[in-house]
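Database export, one record per block. Field names are fixed; values are copied verbatim from the stored entry.
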Amino acid sequence: MKKYILKRILISLIILVFVAFIIYVLMRCLPNSYVETIARQKSQQPGSKSYQEWLADLNASYGLDKGIIPGFLGWCGKAIRGQFGDSWYYTVPVVEKFQSVIWVSFYMGAVSLFFELIIAIPLGIIAATKQYSTTDYVITIVALAGISLPTFFFASLLKLLFSVKLGWFDLYGLVGRNYNYLSRTGQILDMGKHLFLPILTLVVISIGSLMRYTRTNMLEVLNADYIRTARAKGLSERKVIYHHAFRNTLIPLVTIVGGSLPGLFSGALITETLYMIPGIGYTSYNAMVGGDIPFSMFYLVFLAILTLTGNLISDILYAVVDPRVRIA
């Protein structure tokens, strides 16, 4: 196991370098950037230098006057030391801005994952045990609706109904205007009121795939020979389903959930942007739109690290929960 993990980590590092290089090339090829915007603004000031002179000076100060390869190697050298530079859009160090917004996304992701698990897995089991019944069809329709609904469309419906029509929740933001004047309990309730619709959006659009996956795996297990043997021995249907079948259904589910854990830190870019929640997703969106190369590079490489970590966790968990699997 240790040899396998070490080998996978080394392979992941190699993949990460190539992914970071591709991202760096794409960032350098953006049609518009912060330096071009600032150069254009400064060139319009009375008695200022020309746009081309300002652009050359700013590119030199940010190291963008070098070629792709030298520039990437310079970025890697600083990244290894944890130096990602200052955000052009937010005018603060990239790491500092990241630390100030990541936990909002993490708490949103953790709460939505919790509700996704306690809703999707039981419904998937019920649908499998009542195959081709009305209950199964209703759950299947709900699952397909969750899979098919675009995030922006469903979020817009929720805001139209609960914010515009009923006025129960605010349209945007993490806290209300009177947040600083509320008690500690009032502040928590106010933040929860603002996060309710974003979390509801994440839960509804996520439960469909997990629900269908649980149903499919449960049906496969229920048709296994050892389940028929357990029923032939006279065991109750409840014990057959929840003691024998469900335990084996958990094997692939654990790998999926384990692989999704790093995603708690990636943020929900579309949902956070629609509700203007100041998490890592919304922050990164503003940085990308503003041509903020340092922050965009950091965020995209961070996503690549999370993806590679999730794949490694899934592979390891599968071998841990299923003793029949051996990693060589």
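Remark 1: The chain has a mean pLDDT of 83.
Remark 2: The chain has 13 helices and no strands.
End of record.
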